[in-house]
Amino acid sequence: MKKKNDPDFIKYLDEENSYADTFMDDTKNLQHVFYSEMTAREPSNKFTSPPQLSGPWYYYEYIPESKDYSIYCRKLATETNDWFQTPSNHVTGKSSEVQILLDYNELVEQYGYVDVGTHEVSPNHNYLAYTLDTTGDERFMLQVKNLKTGILENFRVDDVDDQVECYTPEHDPINNIMIYTEKDPKFSVDISSTKDKNYITVNSKSKTSSKVYVIDANNVKSGLHRIQKRVPGIQYRLEHHHHGFFYALTDRPLSRRKSLATGNRYVVRCPVQDVHKTRWETVLVPGEDVIIKDIDIFNEYLVLELKRNGFPVMCSIKLPIDGSSKKAMKNIDDLDPWYFPLPSNLCTIVPGSNYDFMSSRYRADVSSPMMSDVIVDYDMSKRSFSIVDHDEVVGTTMESNSYSISEKGEDIIYNDGQKWSDFSEAYCIEEKEVISHDGIRIPLTILYSRKTHNKEQSPGLLKGYGAYGDVLDKSWSSDRQSLLDRGWVVAFADVRGGGIRTDPLWHKYGRGSNKSNSIADFVSCAEYLISEGYVHKRLLGALGGSAGGLLVAAAANRQPELFRAIILEVPFLDVCNTLLDPCLSSLDCVKEFGNPEIRSEFFKILKYSPYDNVPKQVCCPAMLVTASFNDSRVGVWEPAKWVAKVRKNACSECSKAVILKTNMKCGHLGEPWTSSRYQETAYKYAFLVKVMGLMDT
């Protein structure tokens, strides 16, 4: 099966797709109902990225009416910019003031499949660099467009990642000068710039270490200057501030203070002139029960993305930070931080582009399981906030609940009408802690409809991931309403191996030799949903994608009777063989799941690897397994092998249907566009309804 272009294998996948479609034939009407509900909730003529000022231009993305894909535009800033309150004229050609930079609809028409990895406008606003994946294999080509002429430059680079920084040294061009070569394939190279554009950074990195060089952007021929040698287990990225310091966020203190513990993140700095002497000082330490997740830097402010007692928090601190005292290292709360008003402890925060180094405004996208996406501008100088855009949820009968924030002691200025609006009157969200096999408490988030949930009778869907320290996404998803409104429970298990709460070592406890903890945690959460009456004992489903597919499949191997159905999305199942394949494996994968070339680790992997532990002659749950033909992370043969082995091993008398659905044109990340994703989601929901025997309810 590993020869994916073998005609016999392609025929095999086509036959499996036909079998899956035949099995799902009686759900076509239900799929249409689900799809119609999802698309009806999407407002027409909406921003996908609201206007944000960069230099003299407002840049924004927008989906025009009757189109499936976004258009990337810009408009010159004027004294009155209330135009983006009713934006349709500025994308449909009715306004001559708008310049269309990139029309994704035209790209899809040209290539058939397109994923725009990223786009970046040059500092002089004359060029647009963007990356395109036209096959789904995440091998991007880089193109540069002249925004004055609209013509693509005679410049194209193939096989890049999905990140790009655009530099155009027009007055002193550099041609074919080798700046840096990374000879070790275990590391990737990220080329970026400090936000003030004074330095270009070259970061040779993995998920566990960094080696950063800088180039003076005003004197690029001066060459590379190394900031810090690579130290295993230490990651950091660099910023520069006009007051003569390099700032970095690192997951270990770079200073020699023995009092600082590892396992958290620290803000450190070093004078630019002393960088070769590695005179790093730790200037900002997290307080008790606080984790520093990320930083952003402006001319006058440092923005911190935090977790406090497990919940997201953001704040700004005035720069420069005074380091004149003997105790230069400071706690965040010692620096008069302004904590950004947020709507809910359970909210998800996605930073905006925030290009403008000189700005005092910080933009973020805020959502929660109860609240659709809100674009918020935080004015750090005035300590006020304004809601720029709130995604409307149309086609729903639920009334939203509007409220303001009240926090005593906070110096907050509210603009007129600035209120959060959510659906907490229609839906209930509960946070529980489930005791796992070894006594550790596992966070479990449970979501259901106040109106339709039926204790001990409702069907449920449990989601999990548990790898790479990534936090399980619980942001707003309007398609989730189609399950909740039918009485379903949707739950999220934050198992070890992911990232959660106040314990920065949560990831470590569920990776490598500790991977079995993740699986046991997921099983415990599933049992809790049933034992506490949230879900009927025979109506629990589970869903996991990629490494989350490993989690769900391994849990189903251990206790197949626990789940009525599972959905595995491009799942990582044959762990040993994949890790031994240099085309698919990476240093990050080996550190996450173990090194099968080491004998002791090989046998530990075999104990949890789903493909190597498919039980024989048991009643397996119904399974929908998805694959992507151009997947560069999980070979398309991996889900196919799993399906074949499960069918072979399962009890023929009582096991449920196991179907394989392969997207023949996409990669690991699937369809990048909303309408296609809704079709896929409708298919999965219809599968769950069918195999749980709920078609007539």
From TrEMBL:
<keyword id="KW-0378">Hydrolase</keyword>
<keyword id="KW-0645">Protease</keyword>
<feature type="domain" description="Peptidase S9 prolyl oligopeptidase catalytic">
    <location>
        <begin position="478"/>
        <end position="693"/>
    </location>
</feature>
<keyword id="KW-0720">Serine protease</keyword>
<dbReference type="InterPro" id="IPR002470">
    <property type="entry name" value="Peptidase_S9A"/>
</dbReference>
<dbReference type="InterPro" id="IPR029058">
    <property type="entry name" value="AB_hydrolase_fold"/>
</dbReference>
<dbReference type="InterPro" id="IPR051543">
    <property type="entry name" value="Serine_Peptidase_S9A"/>
</dbReference>
<dbReference type="InterPro" id="IPR001375">
    <property type="entry name" value="Peptidase_S9_cat"/>
</dbReference>
<dbReference type="GO" id="GO:0009507">
    <property type="term" value="C:chloroplast"/>
</dbReference>
<dbReference type="Pfam" id="PF02897">
    <property type="entry name" value="Peptidase_S9_N"/>
</dbReference>
<protein>
    <recommendedName>
        <fullName>Prolyl endopeptidase</fullName>
        <ecNumber>3.4.21.-</ecNumber>
    </recommendedName>
</protein>
<dbReference type="GO" id="GO:0006508">
    <property type="term" value="P:proteolysis"/>
</dbReference>
<dbReference type="Pfam" id="PF00326">
    <property type="entry name" value="Peptidase_S9"/>
</dbReference>
<comment type="similarity">
    <text>Belongs to the peptidase S9A family.</text>
</comment>
<comment type="function">
    <text>Serine peptidase whose precise substrate specificity remains unclear. Does not cleave peptides after a arginine or lysine residue. Regulates trans-Golgi network morphology and sorting by regulating the membrane binding of the AP-1 complex. May play a role in the regulation of synaptic vesicle exocytosis.</text>
</comment>
<feature type="domain" description="Peptidase S9A N-terminal">
    <location>
        <begin position="177"/>
        <end position="320"/>
    </location>
</feature>
<dbReference type="GO" id="GO:0004252">
    <property type="term" value="F:serine-type endopeptidase activity"/>
</dbReference>
<feature type="domain" description="Peptidase S9A N-terminal">
    <location>
        <begin position="4"/>
        <end position="159"/>
    </location>
</feature>
<dbReference type="InterPro" id="IPR023302">
    <property type="entry name" value="Pept_S9A_N"/>
</dbReference>
